[in-house]
Write a structure and sequence with these properties.
Blueprint (H helix, E strand, L loop, with lengths): L10 H5 L2 H7 L13 E5 L11 H19 L3 E5 L1 E2 L3 H13 L5 H4 L1 H26 L9 E2 L3 H16 L3 E11 L4 E3 L4 E17 L5 E6 L10 E4 L13 E3 L6 E6 L12 E3 L5 H10 L25 H15 L2 E14 L7 E10 L2 H10 L7 E3 L2 H11 L4 E2 L1 E2 L9 E3 L5 E3 L10 E2 L3 E2 L1 H5 L2 H4 L9 H6 L2 E7 L3 H16 L4 E7 L2 E2 L16 H8 L1 H10 L7 E2 L2 H24 L5 H12 L6 H22 L3 H28 L4 H22 L4 H8 L24 H23 L8 E6 L3 H6 L1 H8 L1 E7 L9 E5 L2 E5 L7 H26 L2 H6 L2 H30 L1
Parallel strand pairs: 1-2, 3-4, 9-11, 15-23, 22-23, 24-25, 26-27
Antiparallel strand pairs: 5-6, 5-14, 7-8, 7-10, 7-13, 9-12, 10-11, 14-16, 17-21, 18-19, 18-20, 26-29, 28-29
Helix pairs in contact: 10-15, 11-15, 16-17, 17-18, 18-21, 18-22, 19-22, 20-21, 20-22, 20-24, 21-22, 22-23, 24-26, 27-29
Length: 880
């Protein structure tokens, strides 16, 4: 049989070669339909330092869900892929690889070293694209970009020069964060503050010309080599007699002044503060106010320089040990007090960052920040999901410092500034004419080019580029909350400055993936999960289902193999359902399905269960679409899961067996058609989340053609809505469930026929569906009436619209039955209390939509009826 599926879902078989077929068919490219609304996404570029991690898999999964759904909905979709050169990280990785062969970057020189980095880039870019393929992401590779492409490099140079000409980029000597391992400057947000064990070292400085000493406390005693003053508060009576005098730095015996400044806190420590301007941001500000000299006492690699006297050449931490020992020997180390404090570490190399005076290039942020803040009050504001991250963005923009953008690296965009021997500097998009010019050795921070990503990838600075005019601003960005400052903020202020528009309409923020214990995944803990290993075992569809359903927007999610097992089981359930349907409907044509559905909608054929499942399908499509539009993928997945597993597989499929095992061929044809249609729509609803296996099944359906990638996304079809059928089958399901529960309570298996009585105003309907009742409850006698005598000794249940009695003489214990019913009564009382509380809330009634309020009122009436019926039954049993 050509349409046959294997008995068990095998992700390896299903996903093998599927992605390549999609690429060959060009189904991921924009439709080119000028009448279609454009929808664009640019992929958050992974850096070329290695394999994809779970966080990036999360980014790409959520974006792929969005773009696949929009493509199926008829939008002209563009998902543009690309990668980031990741200056510090990539250079460090390549240098480490060369070191294995005993080669230093300096041995090769800049150009040959960069050749090695490009080889690395080609190798790992290929790996990343292979992994994207395994994830199934539907990008348009004909538009793939890299941050060091010539087009993007042109954009970088243009932006640099324009900001420089406006005075918003400048070169100056300031205190910056220095990474001694990478030997480069870092921006504030590239510094991670970690709590570590340290100490306060209490040291005495002698007053020049006296036997008096002052005591200072520092966590970094080695920095006293760069002290240029000590300060006290002018209101501090303890030290007024010392102001204007000098202290002698121990060991190196340099004389420095005692000054007054408000930075000295009388209530903190001894009230005396050492000032090391070249190695502390607060001290730098003090030095600027008092015109103090600034002594850099450290080399680029974190060793002490010539200003350190006898400690020259020692590593900073080794120097600390030696200085502490020497101070102790001199009797000027008063105390060492342990302390737990936060210390800045390099986000890239992990080493302790050194605040250090350095000449660097900076972006002046005040006007750029003001523009970004003001934009969030306009119609062009970027919408954050969840909205609370707008506050995160705004707080950072309101407190942002000038951005240090130069990096002491070779890999990256070399700063477009040139110098000559006359001391002149030239800044331009191209090199200056003439001889004697040397380009600045530094490169730009990676985030400088990444900040231009949404528009530089679209062809800017050519504003007449077809893609720029059609697809910019982009529609949605998906990223983790950990790079709001690194990337999202910078894209916004750069885009506003250079295009006059926000770079995207929406930003969907997700959290971090943690291990089962809630810990952040890291190499040190050894708890990292390789998404490719997960795919190898469970398939990409199962991983994508987990990633889309794991949490609400903005929340962290814990990875769990139990959840992966559940995802695989769900897919296997759909696989088996599809297999059953295909085996029973292999020859049903698309025309036959269309004709059958029309008859069901017109109620000229089909039964109530057919009309019920089509109504439920409509409701599912509506609710899923609503939740997807709000980026609530977890809620959408929950709705889909419940419909597919419970309503479609567990109920409708079972109910259809009454027809499929019957004699009426015409009725069987209708049921086959409905089964195929619902399966077809289920696959389309699932496809954005789980693309591989849905395509595998879709192409085997006898009533479909083409790829599901470009199939129409399900829409609500009003002609299928049938509230009466929906209510009726809901009552039927409740009734069957109630009988099963009663049988279980008294240990009466379904194989044993028992009498059953149903009292209901809907007796006519229940009699019409009595074959279903008989099939699923096995009554020895079935009595359904609007009014009937209630047996004295019977198990009972109250469902919406009916009362059910099972006379089980000899099996029922009256006291136990009363106890059970009293628990049920308490349950309905709790439901009544909750609804009454909600309806008693004036704000809810006044502000909620009318249909929402009416739904609560309908619940109240239903719960009250059930409560009254159970209460009456308890009274009857107690009387007897």
């Amino acid at each position: 049989m050509t349409n046959e599926l294997t008995p068990k879902f095998n992700p390896t078989e299903v996903e093998a070669g599927r992605y390549e077929k999609w690429l060959e068919a060009d189904v991921f490219k924009p439709s080119g339909n000028p009448d279609a609304e454009p929808y664009s996404i640019v992929i958050p570029p992974p850096n070329v330092t290695g394999k994809l991690h779970l966080g990036h898999a999360w980014d790409t999964t959520l974006q792929d869900i969005i773009i696949r759904q929009k493509r199926m909905q008829g939008f002209d979709t563009l998902w543009l892929p690309g990668m980031d050169h990741a200056g510090i990280a990539t250079q460090a990785k390549v240098a480490a690889r060369l070191a294995e062969d005993g080669i230093l970057p300096q041995d090769l020189g800049r150009e040959k070293f960069l050749d090695k980095v490009w080889e690395w880039k080609d190798e790992y870019a290929t790996t990343i694209k292979e992994q994207w393929g395994k994830m199934g992401i539907s990008v348009d590779y004909s538009r793939e970009r890299f941050t060091l492409d010539e087009g993007l490099s042109q954009a970088v140079r243009k932006v640099f020069v324009q900001l420089y000409n406006k005075g918003w980029i400048y070169r100056g000597e300031k205190l910056i964060n220095w990474d001694p391992k990478a030997m480069t400057a870092l921006s504030d947000i590239e510094v991670i503050h970690k709590e570590i064990d340290g100490a306060f070292y209490h040291i005495t400085y002698q007053i020049e010309g006296s036997d008096e000493f002052v005591e200072i406390a520092t966590t970094r005693p080695e920095t006293f080599l760069g002290d240029t003053a000590v300060i006290v508060n002018e209101k501090d009576e303890r030290y007024k007699h010392l102001v204007g005098k000098n202290v002698i730095l121990p060991i190196i015996n340099r004389v420095i002044p005692i000054l007054t400044d408000d930075h000295a806190d009388m209530e903190k420590g001894t009230g005396v503060v050492k000032i090391t301007p070249a190695h502390d941001p607060n001290d730098f500000e003090v030095a600027m106010r008092h015109d103090l000299p600034m002594i850099n006492m450290m080399n680029n690699d974190g060793t002490i320089n010539e200003n350190g006297g006898k400690y020259e050449g020692l590593d900073r931490f080794e120097a600390r040990k030696q200085i502490v020992a020497d101070l102790k020997e001199l009797g000027q180390l008063v105390d060492i007090k342990p302390v737990r404090h936060e210390v800045g570490h390099s986000e890239r190399t992990g080493v302790v960052v050194e605040p250090r005076l350095s000449t660097q290039w900076f972006v002046k942020m005040d006007e750029l920040a003001k523009n970004a803040i003001a934009n969030q009050t306009t119609e062009d504001a970027v919408e954050f999901y969840p909205p609370r991250f707008n506050d995160t963005f705004m707080q950072w923009m309101e407190n942002v410092h000038d951005w240090v953008i130069s990096r002491q690296l070779w890999w990256g965009h070399q700063i477009p500034a040139w110098y000559n021997e006359a001391g002149e500097m030239y800044v331009g998009e191209e090199a200056p004419e003439g001889e004697g010019w040397t380009q600045d050795e530094d490169v730009l921070d990676t985030w400088f080019s990444s900040a231009l990503w949404p528009f530089s990838t679209m062809g800017w600075p050519d504003e007449n580029s077809a893609d720029f005019k059609r697809y910019f601003p982009t529609s949605t960005l998906v990223t983790g909350y950990d790079i709001i400052f690194f990337w999202v903020s910078r894209m916004i202020f750069q885009s506003l400055e250079f295009t006059g528009k926000s770079p995207f309409h929406n930003v969907l923020i997700h959290g971090l993936i943690r291990d089962e214990e809630g810990r952040k995944m890291s190499k040190s803990l050894g708890n990292g999960i390789d998404p490719m290993d997960v795919i190898e075992k469970y398939g990409a569809d199962a991983l994508r289902w987990f990633l889309s359903n794991g949490s609400a927007p903005g929340q962290d999610v814990r990875f769990s193999y139990d959840k992966m097992d559940a995802a695989w089981n769900f897919i296997n359930k759909i696989w088996n359902v599809s297999r059953y349907i295909l085996m029973n409907a292999e020859d049903v044509s698309a025309d036959a399905v269309s004709s059958a559905l029309t008859k069901v909608a017109n109620k000229t054929a089909g039964n109530v269960t057919d009309r019920w499942i089509l109504t439920r399908l409509n409701d599912t499509a509506r609710r899923v679409t609503e939740q997807m539009d709000k980026f609530e993928f977890g809620v959408a997945g929950h709705i889909l899961y419940n419909f597919i597993w419970d309503e479609f597989a567990n109920w409708y499929l079972e109910l259809t067996k009454e027809v499929m095992f019957g004699e009426d061929e015409a009725e069987k044809d209708i049921t086959r058609a409905v089964l195929l249609h619902v399966l077809d729509q289920v696959l389309r609803l699932l496809h954005p989340i789980m693309p591989f296996f849905t395509e595998e099944i879709f192409e085997k359906l006898p009533n479909t053609s083409g790829s599901i990638v470009v199939a129409e996304y399900p829409k609500v079809r009003p002609e299928f809505n049938d509230d009466k059928a929906s209510e009726g089958v809901t009552m039927l399901i409740e009734l069957i469930t109630a009988v099963r529960n009663i049988r279980a309570e008294v240990n009466t298996p379904l194989s044993k026929a028992v009498p059953m009585l149903i009292k209901s105003e809907h007796a006519d309907f229940l009699n019409a569906v009595s074959p279903y009742i008989s099939r699923f409850t096995n009554p020895s006698e079935l009595t359904i009436a609007k009014d009937l005598a209630v047996p004295e000794q019977a198990m009972s249940a109250v469902i919406t619209g009916a009362e059910l009695y099972l006379p089980l003489a000899g099996l029922i214990n009256i006291e136990e039955e009363i106890a059970r019913l009293e628990k049920e009564l308490a349950k309905w009382q709790k439901e009544l209390d909750l609804v009454n509380k909600k309806l008693g809330n004036e704000r809810f009634v006044a502000n909620a939509k009318a249909k929402v309020v009416q739904k609560e009122k309908d619940k109240l009436a239903d719960y009250q009826e059930k409560f009254d019926t159970v209460k009456a039954r308890i009274a009857e049993l107690k009387e007897n």
